[in-house]
Amino acid sequence: MAPSLTETVVQSTETISKGLVTLKLRPEAEKPSDKGPSYPFYFPYFDKDEKFPPTEIFEHTDPGLRANPAKPHLLADGVQRKDLSPYIGTELKNVQLSQLSKEGLDEVALFVAERKLVVLRDQDFKDIGADRQIEIARYFGPIQRHPTSGNVKGYPEFHVVYRDADNDRFREYVGGDRANLTSWHSDVSYEKQPPGTTLFFILDQPPLGGDTIFASQVEAYNRLSPEFKKRLEGLKAVHSAVPQAEHSRSRDGPVRREPVETEHPVVREHPVTGEKALYVNQGFTKRIVGFKTEESEYLLKFLFDHISKGADFQIRASYEPGTVILWDNRLTVHSATPDYSTKERRHAVRLTPQAEIPIPA
Ligand SMILES: [Fe+2]
Known about the structure:
The protein is an alpha+beta fold. Helices cover 21% and strands 21% of the residues. The chain is built from 8 helices and 17 strands. The strands form 4 sheets. It has an 8-stranded mixed sheet with strand order 1-2-3-14-6-16-4-5. The protein has a 3-stranded antiparallel sheet with strand order 13-7-15. It is globular. The site of fe (ii) ion has 3 residues, from loops. Keywords: Dioxygenase, Oxidoreductase.
């Protein structure tokens, strides 16, 4: 049962939880015009003493492999489909994620892999309760428990994204001195089994701005010459959780699991569609295995520039009340666009099912 807002406010006049002093929820009296978060149950929770064991390898069978390619459950009569760009992104209306059968969820996995990003409008997902939300997400794979970010007390499966006038963790993390705050990444790609089909639902949003931009790593790969593709295939790169953990530690936040560094193929293959995708990202990829420092920097700089400048294989996902978006973290990178006023609240939750050990192309 979610605590009421009043309870949360009373508990958190000073701090929202033990171990982290920078996330504050002011008493309403101090901000009479602000009623606080619409969903206080999901206010980010940080417990410095929370610890997780190292992750264990598991066998992943992607639900998309079982899907009927015609997708009769997901794309039934009456469902409105609008593709947002040729390479990435589709918006669907008149379909409820929470009502889909197993067959329907198999089709979601396949459809998200094909379209890279799917925007579902008018969902009841935010109101179906934590257990059911987790149950649906878990259909796509075991849910990653984030080592450093805000979660929900008793529900470490939730990765909470939160910003308001008093709390701006994102800006602190990306850096206050940057000319832009674009920060391309694929979520937690340092995991040995990084996420596949990923869910994100919005709870509070600014009146304007706060979109998420996405790029297709399949099309980014396809644009390269055959000779350049040949050079990339077989290469591996190191993805590191260390900077994230150090940042959390430096501000007295949790490090629930010791940070890992993992080698992944620079080009990976999707287990369902067979598509090849670049699998490097600015957020977590640190170096090319076997290259000297300058060689690695040179290659990664080219790839990061190529991906970030590819407006012709990118899309901008916008939010409305009730929006749920799903993306395939194996085939995309994304960035927040913190373009809204620092006084505005944005509150969202990610559920991050993990998938297979990346398959080298
Ligand atoms: Fe992300």
